[in-house]
Amino acid sequence: MKRPLSCLRSLALASSLALFSLVAPMAPIARAQEAAPPATEQAIDARVLLSALGALADTRIRSMADALAVTAQGQDARSLEWERIRPLLAIVQERFGPATVWFARPDGSYFTVDQGATNASLKDRPYFPKLMAGEAAAGELVVSRSTGSNTVIAAVPIMADGRAVGALGASIHLDALARMIRESAPLPDGFVFYALDARGQIALHTQENRIFQEATQLGSPTLSEAVRRMLATPEGAVTYEFEGGKQRALYRTSALTGWKFALRFPAE
């Protein structure tokens, strides 16, 4: 790496500390100045930073999913009455948003905190059969039908007598999630954090305009090959040409969503 990575150690620590304040407004964390560590420590610092940034994303999604799971176990959710469910989901949305939080019936009709009953259906969403089979869903990328926003799904079934009778979910706004990560741990110039879903679609990116683009369609054959390798292996490092220079990226797999988290920087 061409830039001194003294700030990476500080940023990794800052990102880890930020995990404890995800539910509160987050201010940028200042970069501390230290003596540059040896090259072997620099490589370790980059991996630690990657893990910390990925943990920020996972923790936000998991926090939403956990809040929904607790709500789904209560009598209000099991009543399947929107008037009883909405106040609880409004609290979840306020605390763990920005997101569109919803309640769905088994036929796919659904209600959102902001709009109430909608005219759309979730029945054809790929994750919906999983919910109706009694399984939670996390990590699926969708364009929200109620808001038009690029979102990631966190959803849980409502269970009664051993079967799914409905579902609670959140469509978490990806631009806000990316902004939260960027503001929590500002990266050095030339460094980029991003995430790919199982199809190679960009789920998160510190340059928000990249979200939902197909990484293999960005005009770099070497990047396309790097993406194929990333999707095929749980972790590692790749090198590719992009935006006029040689780039190196460390990557690892999220145990929650299956996304590939990557930290990219100019290759030496």
The total number of structural domains is 2
Indicate the radius of gyration in whole angstroms.
20 Å
Number of distinct beta strands: 11
CATH class of the largest domain: Alpha Beta
Helix tally equals: 7
Taking the alpha carbons of the first and last residues, their distance comes to: 5 Å
Task: Write out the CATH superfamily name of the largest domain.
Answer: PAS domain
Query: Which spans have pLDDT < 50 for at least 5 consecutive residues?
Result: 1-41
The amount of beta strand, in percent, is: 25-35%
Assign the structural class, choosing from mainly alpha, mainly beta, alpha/beta, alpha+beta, or little secondary structure: alpha+beta
Largest sheet, spatial ordering of strands: 3-2-1-6-5-4
- Integer average pLDDT: 86
Percent in helix? 25-40%
Q: What is the string of helix and strand elements?
A: HHHHEEEHEEEHEEHEEE
Summarize the structure.
By secondary structure, this protein is of the alpha+beta class. The chain has helices at residues 6-18, 39-72, 75-78, 82-96, 128-132, 174-184, 221-232; strands at 99-104, 109-112, 116-121, 137-143, 150-160, 163-173, 192-196, 202-205, 235-242, 245-253, 260-266. It has a six-stranded antiparallel beta sheet. Strands 8-7-11-10-9 form a five-stranded antiparallel beta sheet, with helices on both faces.
Explain this structure.
With 268 residues, the protein is of the alpha+beta class. It folds into two domains: 6-61 and 175-266, 2-Layer Sandwich (Beta-Lactamase); 78-174, Beta-Lactamase. 35% of the residues lie in helices and 29% in strands. The protein is built from seven helices and eleven strands. It has helices at 6-18, 39-72, 75-78, 82-96, 128-132, 174-184, 221-232; strands at 99-104, 109-112, 116-121, 137-143, 150-160, 163-173, 192-196, 202-205, 235-242, 245-253, 260-266. A six-stranded antiparallel sheet has the order 3-2-1-6-5-4. β1 (99-104) and β2 form a beta hairpin. It is elongated. Residues 1-41 have low confidence and may be disordered.
